[in-house]
Structure formats: C-alpha cells, structure tokens
Design goal:
It is a single chain. With 103 residues, this protein is of the alpha+beta class. It has a single domain, classed as Roll (Ubiquitin-like (UB roll)). The protein contains 3 helices and 3 strands; from the N terminus they run αβααββ.
Length: 103
C-alpha cells in the first residue's frame, strides 16, 4: 500500500466518522462541573446552558468546546477537561448524554 492510498483510506474513515457524529441524535441531559471553589454557580450556569440546545453528537462536541473556551476566558479553571458519556439513571433519555467539565 502506498503512502497516498493510506492517506486516502484515513481520509475516508475520518469523513465517515464525521457523518456518523452528525447523524447520531443526542441531547444533553446533565452537565457536571467539578473543580470550582470560589466561582458563583450563576456565572457557570450562564456559560454552559447552550449545551442543552445540542441536537446531535457532533453538536454536543462543538458546543462543549465553545463552553470550554468561554470558561477559559473567565479564568475559572487552570486546565479544562471535557468528558462526554451516555446518560444514566432514572432521568436519562434514550439519546441522552452527560457532559462533564473538570479541572
């Protein structure tokens, strides 16, 4: 296999992943924020509420990174990590995910 054909194969897989992320419906059921002590809840809530508007998995990822940028600009965290997992528990929806933001 040549270098060019392996690059093309990788590109095809990458495009397929993007299509699957876009087609997979998802909604944010819960948002967890860990690692804050002094920052008021109202400030954080106003920054993360946009995550609840996501319609598919790709949208969840994009919105999560935008929220990360907003929180980074506020200086609330030293280094913000994002964790996305399937929603669990009695309030979980079939397409639900939980987004965790942590320091």
């Amino acid at each position: 296999m040549s270098f060019r054909s392996s690059k093309v194969k990788y590109l095809h897989l990458w495009i397929l992943k993007i299509i699957l992320y876009h087609l997979h419906q998802a909604r944010v059921d819960k948002i967890h924020v860990d690692g804050l002590v002094r920052t008021k809840d109202d400030i954080i809530k106003s920054q993360v509420m946009d995550l609840f508007k996501a319609k598919n998995f790709e949208d969840v990822i994009i919105r999560a990174y935008k929220v990360r940028e907003k929180l980074d600009a506020l200086g609330c965290f030293r280094n913000i990590g994002i964790y996305i997992d399937t929603s669990q528990g009695p309030d979980a929806t079939p397409d639900g995910v939980e987004v965790g933001l942590y320091n």
